[in-house]
Specification:
binds uracil, single chain, 278 residues, 6 strands, alpha/beta
């Protein structure tokens, strides 16, 4: 099989498995891809026969050499200045898309920023894109996203009118592993700025990764859920935050849906107290 055809076949197979609900170990797929790319390099013509690099390619490789020398704290400062310069949610989306400081970016297809209604009273923050989100470029569009939409609809919320959906990390980790601390850290200035710009009345943090990262705690979701937590951005936006089970977890443990339902009722009641009609 030609090299490109086998790469395309591996990708199609991965997507098919994911669509069937199989947990794909992306690290094995990546290893197979790398092995195959190695074989392709060995059979490639010698360098002297290769076409000369264009100016654009040289610029890109200078940029990647410069990027490789930056430390996490360099990237963090860059994220902070890009985030604070964004005057609107659309500006912020472009800034995140242009940011090269999260190593996950090189490993995935799309930067997944937000979906839903800007200025909505409810902001949902998940942990980061999965396979479907990476292909489509929008958060929570796979099976977990479909369940999230149903959960929100149960209390009168939907993306088209009153819910805004994003994540605490904008790039899909390989094999859908949890994002690491540094990966979350470089995204955090963007997350904070998103909250400052969107001014939600309430935040729902779905799953332990999002809840722990936002609340800066090691306490797990089992203990965090069930009540509202105070949250404040460095710029002073104060928003009540309700930690909730991740819909992917609820797909695996439907017996916990009643606890998620209680958390949704908490969100509904809190919105009612604030005079927000949904
Ligand atoms: N899980 C998340 O946490 N976020 C998404 O966008 C999709 C799945």
């Amino acid at each position: 099989m030609p090299q490109n055809a086998s790469a395309a076949a591996l990708k199609a197979l991965t997507e098919w498995w994911e669509d069937m609900g199989v947990d794909v170990d992306q690290s094995e797929i990546d290893a197979a891809m790398r092995a195959q790319q190695g074989a392709a390099r060995e059979s490639a013509p010698p360098v002297s026969d290769a076409p000369q690099a264009t100016q654009g390619q040289e610029r890109n490789s200078r940029k990647s050499r410069r990027n490789a020398q930056k430390s996490v704290s360099d990237w963090l400062s860059e994220a902070e200045s890009l985030a604070s310069a964004a005057a609107s949610l659309d500006d912020l989306k472009s800034a995140i898309e242009g940011f090269d400081g999260c190593p996950l970016k090189q490993l995935c297809e799309k930067t997944v920023v937000f979906d839903g209604t800007q200025g909505a009273p409810v902001m949902v923050l998940g942990e980061g894109p999965g396979g479907q989100e990476d292909r489509i470029g929008l958060p929570f569009v796979g099976k977990a996203g479909q369940l999230l939409d149903k959960m929100l609809a149960a209390i009168g919320l939907d993306r088209k009118t009153n819910a805004f959906i994003s994540n605490v990390n904008y790039w899909r980790p390989p094999g859908n592993r949890n994002p690491e601390a540094d990966e979350l850290a470089v995204c955090r200035p963007f997350v904070n700025r998103m909250i400052d710009l969107a001014q939600p009345k309430i935040i729902i943090a779905t799953g332990g990764v999002a809840a722990k990262s936002l609340l800066d705690t090691k306490t797990g979701i089992m203990r965090l859920r069930g009540s509202e937590r105070p949250f404040e951005t460095p710029a002073g936006t104060q928003v009540p935050l309700v930690p909730m089970f991740h819909p992917a977890y609820l797909l695996r443990r439907p017996q916990d849906k009643s606890r998620a339902w209680r958390d949704l009722l908490l969100v509904q009641a809190r919105l009612g107290e604030m005079g927000v009609e949904v």
